[in-house]
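Holo prediction — S-adenosylmethionine.
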Amino acid sequence: MPVQSVPSASPYQLDYAELNWQEGDAPAATQYNDIYFSGHQGLEETEYVFLQHNQLQQRWRQLGSGNSSTSTIFTIGETGFGTGLNFLAAWRLWQQQAPDNWQLHYFSVEKHPLRLQDLQRSLNTWPELHSFAKQLITEYPVLLPGHHLLKFDQGRVTLHLLLGDAIDCLEQLHCSDHPELMLADDIKAYPQVDAWFLDGFAPAKNPSLWNDPLYTLIAQLSAAGTTLATFTAVGDVRRGLAKQGFNMEKTTGFGNKREMLKGVLTQHYPHYDTTLKTRKKGLSAPWYVAGHSAKKKQVTIIGGGLAGTSSAYAMAQRGWQVTLVERTPALAQGASGNSQGMLYTKLSPKPGKLNQFTLSSYLYALRFYRQLLEQQHLSPEQLDFCGVLQLATDEKEKKLQQQLQQLFAGQPELVQFFDSTQASEVANIELTHPGWYFPQAGWLSPSDLCRSLATHPRIEIVYNTEVLELEYEQQWKVNSTSGNTLSQNTLCCAEVVIIANSRDAIQFKQTESLPLKTIRGQITGIESTGKLAQLNTVICHEGYLTPAINGAHSLGATFDNNDSNTTLRNQDHQRNLQSLLQAIPSLTKDFIDVDMDSLTGRASLRCTSRDYLPLVGPVHNYQQFLEDYAPLRKNAHLPFSTPGSYYPGLYINVAHGSRGLTSTPLCSELLAATICNETAVLPRELVSALNPARFVIRDLVRNKI
Ligand code: SAM
C-alpha cells in the first residue's frame, strides 16, 4: 500500500523526501516505498529511457539547421525532479549536442524535494556528472513551495524547479485559465514542451499522480510533435495519454524491465477540462492575456536605474540589441544611486501574493548576485553577503517573531531566530532586542550594480537624453531631447520599448493613468568609529544600519509620502539617528556629540504602487479597458471573453519602492520572458498580480472609475 504523507502545518513547509539508502548509496523514498534510480545503472537507465526515447541526441544535433522556426528554446517537462539525475544527464547531452545560440528550459515538478545533504549524497554516485552536480548543489534553492528559477551556463540552461503537487504547479504554467482563450489559436496560452520525462514513481505506488488531470495538462502543454517517454508500461497510463492524442507505443524496457512507453502527440487540440480543481472556482479573467511577437531582437529601454539596467541585461542575455536611454549623464542617479542597499525580504505569517512575490524575488536575487560575484561582474567591495538581522523592537514584533519561528522552523538557511544575546553575537555589537536573521542576505552597491549590468556588449547607452513621448506608427517613435539642446528630435524607432523610468512613467500618454506613488527617502552616512566599527551584519529596525564601507555606514531611511523634494534635511538626519539609537541604545555614547551639519547623506524618490507590488508587464490601453470591461462596475462576476487590449510591443517595469535590489532581477527576467514569448518565471497568479492593468480592473469592480 502506498504510504500517504501527512500534510505539513505551515504553508511555507513542504514534506521533504524521507529516504532510506540501498546498496551503492542508491536512495529510495520511504513515503512511496520506491527507488529514485536503479542502483549503479541509474544513469544508463536515464539515458536509455528518457534521452534516447525522446530522440534528444538527433533532435538537438539538428536544431537550427534548415528549421524555419524563430524559437531558439527547447523545452523539457518532467514529473518528479527527485535527485536531479535526469536533469543533469539532459544538461550534459545539451552541452555536447545543441548549438550555442539555443537555450534549454527544463521544467520539473517535485512534491517532496530532497534535503540538500540527501541530494549531495545521491549525486555522489555519478563522478561523470560531477561538474554539473556541483553547480546544481550550489544553486539548489531554499525548499519553499513555488516556482524556483535556476540559471546555468550563463543562461543557456534554465531549470524551473516547481515545488508542490504536479497538477497545481503545471496548471500555473498556463498564461490563462480562461476556457475560451485557452482554445484561441492566436493566443499562446501554453508553454510548449518539446519532450516529456514522465518519472513520478511506479503508478501502483503513486496512483494520485498518474491520472487524467495530469494527462490533460501534459497534452495542453504540448504541441504537435511533442514526444514523451516513461519507464512504466502500465495500460492505464498508455490509454490515458492516448486519449489525449498521444500516439503511444510499447517498447523494450531497460535492463530486466520488459517494457516501457514512448509517445508522440500527433495533433494539438487544446481543450478545457473542468476536472482541474483550480478551474472549478468559476470563470477567470481574460484581461491579463496579451500577445506580441517582435520581428527583430531590438529593444529601447527608458531609464538607467536598477529596473532599466536589469531589464537591459536580461534582454541582452537573450541575444537582443539594447538601446538604454538615460536622462542624466550617468546611470543610477535616482533611488538606485545609494552606495549601499540592503538585500532583504519581509516575512509574513500569511502567504498572500505580496509575500509570495517578495520571497521568490529575494531568493532569485541571492542566486543572481552570487553568480555576478563569481563571474567577477561585482567585487567583494561592492557586495557582501554578511547577513541581515531584523530586530523585534516592540511587543507586536516579538509576537510576530514567535509566529514566524513556528512557520519557518525548518528553513535555517533562509531565516534563524535569535534572543538578544545570540543577536548581539552575530552582529558583534550589544543589542537588547531579539530578532530574526537572514544568513544569506547582506548589502550591495546599487550604483555599481547598474554600471556593471550595463557593460554587457549588446547594450548601448544614450546619456543626457530625456524621452518626451512615445508615438506608435507601425513601431514606436521615441521622441526625445538629446545632448544639451532642447530641440525635439526622434531618437529612434523601436518595435519593443520598455518603460523603466520609475514615477516619471506617468509623463507618457500611454501610462499616465497608472497609480504610482512617490515616497521621499533620505539616508545618512555616519563615520565608522567606536563600537560601530565592529558591526558584522546589516541591522534592520524601523530603519537600517549597514556595516562600514570606506569608513562610513549607511543609516536609513526616512519615508515621506508625496514629498518630491530631494534637498538634504538636517531634521531627517536626526530622525534616522534617533530611530537607530532607540533600536540600539548601546550606541548612544558614540553619537552624543555628533554635529548634524557634518553629516552627509542622500535624498531620493522611490516609486511605489497602491498594493506595494511592482508594475511589470505589457502596457494596457486604459481607455479601451474602460470600454471593454465597463459592465464590471455593475457586476464583478460577469463572464468576459474579450482579451485585454495592450499596446503592441510596449512594456513597463516600475514601482519597486525601496526594495528594487531584491525585486528587479526576477521582474526583469519575467519581463524578458514575456517579451520573448517564453514561459513565465512565476506562477500565473503572481504574473497577474504584477500586471499593470490590475488597478483599472479593481477600480472598475469597486465602481470607483
Ligand atoms: N527524475 C528523478 C531523478 O532524476 O532523480 C527521479 C524521480 S523519482 C522516481 C519520482 C519523484 O516524483 C519523486 O521525487 C517524488 O517525490 C515525485 N512525485 C511523486 N508524486 C508527485 C506529485 N504528485 N507531484 C510532484 N512530484 C511528485
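READOUT: Residues 1-7, 274-283, 483-488 have pLDDT under 50 and may be disordered.
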